[in-house]
Design goal:
Oligomer: single chain
Helix content: 40-55%
Strand order of the largest sheet: 3-5-4
Mean pLDDT: 80
Distance between the termini: 27 Å
Order of helices and strands: HHEEHHHHEEEHHHHHH
Shape: globular
Length: 312
């Protein structure tokens, strides 16, 4: 195991403090498995295999992702919805509403996100040139007391719904995408300085596991994005097509990140109800109603009681 993988395991473990030791081990091992998961990288316009056969910190040439974007440049703006457009404003309002919901409880994941946002300048953009559900996070560490800077981009999901890319079963992909990208921001903010400008294996799984904890602790159960990734993986595998994804583990692996982590948290919540672990207060969202909350608002206790825990 590399030093970076150990760091990521420590990062993730804090969000699963009430999980059983067996569940913790299962989840933390996924970070190491991530390093051996086949994916490809794009260099000089061509795909290059990065299959994890050689152990070690694999650092990819991700200049197009790691360079902090100039959001005021014409090139960047040409790929995004106009920030003054009704479409952008509607999406940004939904994003900010979700962020407020994410931080409305006293979980460790919510606390770390609140702490990050308190000393950060964050911008949200909707990418109109992306043809699949996706997101990105650019992070620039502040120096000498200046705030961190974060730019989070999300696909134009409403357009993708109209085009049929997202089906009814996975149409609500925004919560998972947003929570995952915010997970990158939280993790980037905690990274030791020597790794701050590097992208290494394990980071995607760490962001998935953070996102799953964040969503679970505020009662959001949608798995739209991971369902989409998993279904895309299943279709490609059935057809014998390349199942690798750019820079990240394949969709089947990432779907399982969310499934297995949610199951671990449900088991931990049931133990809390049985008095085997400390209970955590889960405040309901104020002024919510089924229409504005789109059916998401459920108590964590209700989720745990009704859940059918099963292995997939």
């Amino acid at each position: 195991m590399t030093e970076f993988e150990k760091y990521l395991q420590g990062f993730v473990e804090t969000y699963y403090e009430n999980a059983s030791e067996t569940d913790k081990e299962t989840l933390l091992n996924r970070i190491v498995c991530d390093a051996g998961n086949k994916r490809y990288v794009v260099q000089e316009g061509r795909r290059r295999m990065a299959d994890g056969d050689e152990k070690g910190d694999k650092i990819y040439d991700l200049s197009e992702l790691r360079d902090f974007p100039d959001i005021d440049s014409e090139e960047f703006k040409s790929n995004c919805l106009d920030t003054n457009s009704p479409e952008h404003k509607a999406c940004e309002a939904e994003i900010k509403d979700l962020v407020a919901w994410f931080t409305s409880n006293d979980s460790k994941a919510a606390a770390d996100l609140k702490a990050l946002l308190a000393h950060s300048e964050i911008e949200y953009r909707v990418r109109k040139n992306w043809t699949v559900p996706n997101g990105s996070c650019a992070f620039q560490k502040g120096e000498n007391g200046t705030p961190d800077k974060i730019v989070i981009c999300i696909s134009d999901l409403k357009r993708l719904k109209k085009e049929g890319v997202l089906s009814e079963i996975n149409e609500d992909a925004l919560p998972q995408i947003l929570a995952h990208e915010l997970g990158h921001a939280v993790e980037f903010g905690k990274r030791p300085k020597e790794w701050q400008t590097k992208y290494m294996d394990g980071a995607e799984t760490a962001a998935d596991l953070y996102a799953s904890s964040l969503l679970f602790n505020c009662g959001i159960s949608e798995r739209g994005f991971s369902q989409y990734m998993g279904m895309d993986y299943d279709k490609k595998k059935e057809k014998g097509e390349d199942t690798r994804m750019p820079y990240t583990p394949d969709g089947g692996f990432r779907r399982d990140n969310f499934i297995k982590s949610e199951e671990a948290m449900r088991r931990a919540k049931i133990n809390e109800l049985r008095g085997l672990a400390p209970a955590r207060r889960q405040p309901l969202r104020e002024n919510g109603n089924p229409e504005t909350m789109r059916g998401r608002q459920q108590s964590i206790i209700g989720n745990a009681i009704d859940a059918k825990i099963h292995n997939r």
